[in-house]
Amino acid sequence: MSLKLRLSRAGAKKRPFYRIVVADSRYPRDGRFIEIVGTYNPILARTDENRVVLKSERVQHWLGVGAQPTDRVLRFLDAAGLAKRSPRNNPQKAMPGKKAQERSEAAAAKAAAPPEPVAAEPAPAEAAAEPAPAAEAAEGAEAQAG
Q1: Helix, strand or coil for residue 113?
Q2: Where are the domains of the chain?
Q3: In the 8-state DSSP scheme, what is residue 25?
Q4: Parallel, antiparallel, or unpaired for β 68-69 and 3-12?
Q5: Which fold does the domain 3-80 belong to in CATH?
Q6: Which of helix, strand or coil describes residue 73?
Q7: What is the residue-level pLDDT of the chain in tens, covering all 146 positions?
């Protein structure tokens, strides 16, 4: 049995509210849990003290027993001084994906190439286009008469 300190969603649609719970990792996110050790209300302002509420003695107990916090809960615990979260470094984060890089390389190659000459096409004769609608109208009149 692997214990996790994680968020369990509650609240209404478009009004999220989370409980910070201790649960077996095999249970569903909003399913069975062992104990509620805090709450998180993302709708409140970041400076509001009720945004994250923790029962610090219970959190310490479960961490001592071996429960592993998820990344989001570990951020809350680090802010409260209950656990230490090492900063992450991802230098590739700002780089575009492989397909976006291929598209930009193709666009750069196309921009560097000289423009191809465009052959002028003869304009269609307007006189040839006019009789066709008149012929269709005559056929429609014959169909109504018959």
Answers
A1: coil
A2: 3-80
A3: T
A4: parallel
A5: S16 Ribosomal Protein; Chain: A; (3.30.1320)
A6: helix
A7: 789 999 999 989 999 999 999 998 888 888 888 999 999 999 999 898 899 999 989 999 999 999 999 999 999 998 888 888 887 788 888 888 889 988 988 888 888 777 666 666 666 655 555 555 555 655 655 556 55
